[in-house]
Amino acid sequence: MNTVKSFQHDVAPESVMKSSNSVANSMLIKTFLIIAFLVLSASSWALEPEVQAAKDEGMRLWGISEWIEMQPYLEPAAEAGDVEAMYYLGEASRLLDRGLSQAAMDWYLQAADHNDGYAMLRLFQGGACTAGDRCPDGHEDWHHAALAVAQPQAEAGDPDAMLAMFDIYRMFNEPRRAGASRGFFDTYPL
User: Which residues contact 48 (CB under 8 A, 6 or more apart)?
Assistant: First the structure.
């Protein structure tokens, strides 16, 4: 007579559940440790405390339209690689010089080198490619470069990039010469 052998687990179902819970907990701990490592690594990219304090003062001065006084406070942060400081130094120079001056263009170009879409839009608005012969590599003009940077971020759900896309798409309808009337853009700058 043939006997059918059945395979019996010698492990109780409760211990299987405990085992899978410990695997899940282990994965959770590993994920937490990776995130903690990334956060701590990112903090090492932060500005030195005195440079950050100077940047904060510069941004405060920007907020009250003290464009000349803000620059010495933001320059150390920009030199340390802070893209926001680069952009606002470009803004201050543009506002003080009443247009895209060489100083403003230099700051915007530095910010654009770090993929700042708004700096790219200012370069487009000021005619850096047409009048200044400073065009982005691999793109027809600066608003195309800004689109290439912001679109993947917006598609990934980045709300700041989504907002930037509004300004980028609006630029595709703008005149392509420096000093051309910008209408709404003049009234409500980036």
Answer: 80
User: For 152-176, what is each residue's pLDDT tens digit?
Assistant: 999 999 999 999 999 899 888 766 5
d(CA 136, CA 167): 18
pTM: 0.68
Nearest to 70 by CA among 97, 100, 99, 90: 90
Kindly state whether residue 132 falls inside one of the protein's structural domains.
Answer: yes
Tokens of 151: 């679109």
- Of 50, 80, 74, the closest CA to residue 61 belongs to 74
If one counts every other C-beta atom within 10 angstroms of the C-beta of residue 90, the result is 29
Give the whole-angstrom CA distance, residue 69 versus residue 170: 32
CATH assignment at residue 173: 1.25.40.10
